[in-house]
Amino acid sequence: MNAVDQSFSRVFYKLRAGISPKKVHRLRTTIRRIESFIALSGLKLGRKHQEILEELTNLRKRAGRVRNFDVQIRLLGSIANGSTISDRRILVQIFKAKRERQSRRLSSLLKKLDKAEIVGRLEKLIGKTSLAPASKKPIDPLERAKSRLLRLANEIPTGENLKARRLHELRISLKRIRYTAELAEETAARALLLERLKSVQDAIGEWHDWESLVKVAEKQFGDRVNCPLLVEMRALFSAKYSAARSAAASLRESFLPIPKKQPQSAALAPRPARLA
User: Fold this and answer.
1) Rounded-to-integer distance, Cα 230 and Cα 60, Å
2) Do the Cβ atoms of 171 and 205 come closer than 8 Å?
3) Buried-most residue among 62, 93, 121, 175 (CB within 10 A)?
4) In this structure, are residues 57 and 35 in contact, taking their beta carbons and an 8 Å threshold?
């Protein structure tokens, strides 16, 4: 876990020098891993430790506001339709202005947390946390992740029953499971599980990102009939929605046990007569 702790320290201080998309993303994923580690350890947290986690959560959410605009700007750049260029420029300008405001707020929070010595306090908290407590059986993050994934797969609705709200919930649950699995030792089984999780998480994440972008575009251009940008974005969003649902269905089929077939003799055996 020391490596994750050091990763937080590095990205924390690098962000003080500049709020780049890569650093913002790295900060958020690092905090997610720390949260997963502490939750998995089962450590009983005192008030001061709870405060550290709350500060980390607030920092992750603040960074998430910057990250959202980075993602939306990137998605707009992926649209190749030439007739949408003027509308895309309008949205990019809006997003860049909003990102700048959120970046200033993130910088202010980083400065505040630096003065509060969050890096040193976090190091002390991590030092008290272990996945192999002396009085209990060591925790296997990979087995814990598999167990959670099996329960999750069993809860995924099939076909048309998999609605948008359930996909949102699934996306969040998969994130938590993935970060738990990442705490395990590097093995072929771990790599295979992470690859499978990432493919599904990416498919659902892309749908979610396009959903957010379409909502913004509809507010901006919704009063224009057949706006080329909206037409293009809605088509892309529909395709991403189908891909996300297919990925979720594939996950369900991959991790649920296959029902055993009845022996042929049992299947052909006559049914008992019904009582009159």
Assistant:
1) 31
2) yes
3) 62
4) yes
Q: How far apart are CA 159 and CA 247, in angstroms?
A: 12
Tokens of 28: 């958020």
Integer Cα distance of 142 and 187 in angstroms: 10
DSSP the chain: -HHHHHHHHHHHHHHHH---HHHHHHHHHHHHHHHHHHHHHTPPP-HHHHHHHHHHHHHHHHHHHHHHHHHHHHHHHT---GGGHHHHHHHHHHHHHHHHHHHHHHHHHHHHHHHTTHHHHHHHHHHT--SS-TTSPPP-HHHHHHHHHHHHHHHPPPGGG--HHHHHHHHHHHHHHHHHHTTS---HHHHHHHHHHHHHHHHHHHHHHHHHHHHHHHHHHTTSTT-HHHHHHHHHHHHHHHHHHHHHHHHHHHHSPPPPPPPHHHHHSPPPPPP-
Per-residue pLDDT of the chain (276 residues; tens, 9 = 90+): 556 657 899 999 999 889 999 999 999 999 999 998 888 887 788 898 899 999 999 999 999 999 999 999 999 999 988 899 999 999 999 999 999 999 999 999 999 999 999 999 998 888 877 676 555 677 889 999 999 999 998 888 877 778 889 999 999 999 999 999 998 999 999 999 999 999 999 999 999 999 999 999 999 998 998 899 999 999 999 999 999 999 999 988 887 655 545 555 444 444 444 333
CA distance 123 to 211: 38
- Measured between its terminal Cα atoms, the distance across the chain in Å is 69
The answer to whether 197 touches 179, Cβ cutoff 8 Å, is: no
Gap between the Cα atoms of 56 and 51, Å rounded? 9
